[in-house]
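Re: the 309-residue chain
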Amino acid sequence: MDDTDTKIVAIVVVVCLAIVAYGGYRWVRGAIDESEVEDILVELGDTVTMNYTGFIHDERIYGSELRVFDSSLTSVANDNNTYPKTLTYTWRAGSPFTFDAGSNSVIQGWDNNVLGMKVGESQTWHIPAEQAYNPRLPSLLVSYNITEHCPVYESMSRDDFIQQYPGTQANVDTSITHAYWGWPANVFLVTDTEVTILNLPANPSTGKTYETNYGWDTQVTNIDQSADGGKGDITMEHRPQISDVIDLAGMAAFDENSKYIQDEKNGQQRPGPGIVADVGTSTFQVDYNSETYGVELIFQVTLEEIVKG
C-alpha cells in the first residue's frame, strides 16, 4: 500500500468517525427526525415543536365562518383571503411553537391531543371550550340601552374638561367636538371650578348620525331646550351593528362604569376590545371577553420535532 492509499484510508476512517460521532450526538441530544426514526411517538415529558393555525368558531359574530385568531405561519398571517382573521387578530411574523407535553404550560386540549403524534404528522384538532381557554365571564357581557339622553347645557369640573379635551383652552365660545358623542359644541360658561358646554347636534330632522367614542354610531331623535329646569335634553338612539369593535380604553376614560370591565379583562389572555354580539329593540350587548374564551377552538397542526424527555 503506497502513501496515496494510506491517505485515502485515513480520510475514510475520519469520515466514518465523524458520522458515528454525529449520530451519537443526535442520540444523546434526543432529537428525533422523521428521516432517522419514523415510529417515535410523543410521550409525557417530551419537548415538542409544532406549527399551527388556530381558528375560532363563534356563530354569534361570524356565523358559520371560521376565523383565524393566531398562527405560527407567516404565510397564513399574510393571506387574509384564504384565512380570514378575527376582529381582534394582531399580525405577527410566525415561528414554530415549542412546549413540554403534559406540563400544563398549554391549554388542556393541546396536552391531550399531542400525545401519540410523530414527526411530520399533521392533524386537525377540535377543542371544546372546556379544554381551551376559560369560560366567558358573565360580568363582561354588558348590556346598554338603545335610547340615551344628554343635557343641552352640560357642566363638568375644569379637571374633567382638561382630561376630555386635552390642549383645549376653556374659553367662552371655543368650538369643540364632543369627546363622547362626536357632535359639535361650544364652551358656554366658565367659572373657577366648572366649565359648561353647549351641545349643538344637528336638528333631528336631518337624520344625521355621529360616531361616538364607544365605537358605534348614534342618531339624535329629539332636542328639548327647556327640559330639566333649563338644562335641556338631547334624546339619541344608538345604531350599533353586530361585530362593531368597541374601544374599551376610550370608553373607560369617560365612563366610570366601564373601568371595572377593564380591570377584569386584564386577567384574560388576548383580552382585546369589546365586540357587539347582540342587538335588540331596547338594548344591545357587548362582549368584552377575549374572543378565545368560551368557544370551540380548531387547530391545524404539524409536529416538526420531538426531543425525548
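Confidence is low (pLDDT under 50) at residues 12-16, 18-22, 25-29.
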